[in-house]
Amino acid sequence: MKPSIYGLTFEQLSDWLVDHGEKKFRSKQVWDWLYQKRVTDFDDMKNVNQSCIDVLKENFTIETLSEEIKQESEDGTIKYLFKLHDGNVIETVLMRFNYGLSVCVTTQVGCNIGCSFCASGVLRKHRDLSGGEIVEQIMKVQQHLDEKEKDERVSHIVVMGIGEPFDNYDNLIDFLKVVNDKKGLSIGARHITVSTSGIAPKMYEFADEGIQINLALSIHAPTNELRTQIMKINRAYPLEKLMPAIDYYLEKTNRRITFEYILLKDVNDHVKEAHQLADLLMDKKHLSYVNLIPYNPVADNPYERSEKEAILKFYETLMDRGIKCGVRTEHGTDIDAACGQLRSKQIEKEKARKKAKQEKAGV
Ligand code: SAH
Ligand code: SF4
After folding, report:
1. Cα of 153 to ligand 1 centre, how many Å?
2. Distance from the CA of 235 to the center of ligand 2, in angstroms?
3. Looking at ligand 1, which residue's alpha carbon is closest to its atom 18?
4. Which NCBIfam families does the entry mention (predicted)?
């Protein structure tokens, strides 16, 4: 399979074209066709010379994802299930906010971090997505919006779909460079958020990138004991490794960090944990925001969603201690829009179908 053209940053494409005997300025034209006019066939690039089109066609593809399922929710959320060239499936979600249209992208097929509450974590990682496959998710959503002819543009990106972005770091950075580039989609760095489970060494690297992209850390518990219980990554990067990485990021970038805290009934949702979290963040509260996430139940999983009262108490405790926070509003709950849920269901369905087929064949 030829690699996706979307995986190349503008500079990489310019260099590649020059290396292949084409003029450097062609990259501007090609990018214009890809990201402004959004064609899906090299032959549609009208002002590009034939030899350039031929060499691009020989070496790259534009479309590598195919749409398996598209579900539109009553609140305008659209959930896409895409098939990759190797048959794996991934999810992408478009959400509507008053400030714009935000797309949640997937970075890996499955995830090896294995958080006990997460549908994706249960499914292990098959492979990393290429930078092009991550960019193409945005392109597919944008092309779908283009078809509706309402002049709608994807304005925000959250890297919060399946996978751990910092476990696929180089492809993540290429993706961010492509979507952020003014010559392309031009999605502002401040409109992009990357969420990590806390791979501390990569947090240092990310701080050093010198980009204005927002960082969210899935903290989920204020003590090592509790955090290890629900996120086994905490063994490798416990709070005493994580907090200095956060301090480094804050010092280096002076940008606010979002702490994601999934509320699991009777596990981490007591007032005690709210106080412990406030203690943990107290010295950086001016640059902290806690996003309280009501848990979306996952099949065969022991956790339950916290009671409304517990959520409110947790929120008030943090606010009283001067920690800014909010409760995440839900999108598309009627269409399995939570992290990895549509994909898990589809995989279950496939398994059941295969089993039925085998039984029928007497295997
Ligand atoms: N791997 C990264 C990014 C993808 S997960 C990370 O963990 O940060 C994005 C967010 O969705 C995380 O904060 C994660 O904890 C949350 N999440 C996972 N499963 C969930 C569920 N069942 N209900 C609600 N949020 C969930
Ligand atoms: Fe992976 Fe994030 Fe799910 Fe944890 S919450 S298993 S890191 S995708």
Report:
1. 25
2. 15
3. 118
4. rRNA_mod_RlmN
Which sign does the torsion angle of CA 183, 12, 65, 348 carry?
negative
Distance CA(104)–CA(106), nearest Å, equals 7
Catalytic residue among 22, 91, 136, 260: 91
Q: Which residues surround ligand 2 with Cβ inside 6 Å?
A: 111, 113-115, 118, 120-121, 162-164, 197, 218
**Hey, where are the domains in the chain?**
5-59, 65-352
Q: What is the DSSP string of 75-132?
A: TS-EEEEEE-TTS-EEEEEEEEETTEEEEE---EES-SS--TT-HHHHT---EEPPHH
Residue 309 falls in the annotated catalytic set? no
Q: What are the pLDDT digits (tens) for 168-205?
A: 999 999 999 999 999 999 999 999 999 999 999 999 99
Retrieve residue 222's tokens. 């204020």
Q: Is 67 a catalytic residue?
A: no
Please state, for a pLDDT cut of 90, what percent of the chain lies above it: 85
**Centroid of ligand 2 to alpha carbon of 197 (angstroms):** 7
* Architecture of the 5-59 domain: Orthogonal Bundle (1.10)
Q: Which CATH architecture has domain 65-352?
A: Alpha-Beta Barrel (3.20)
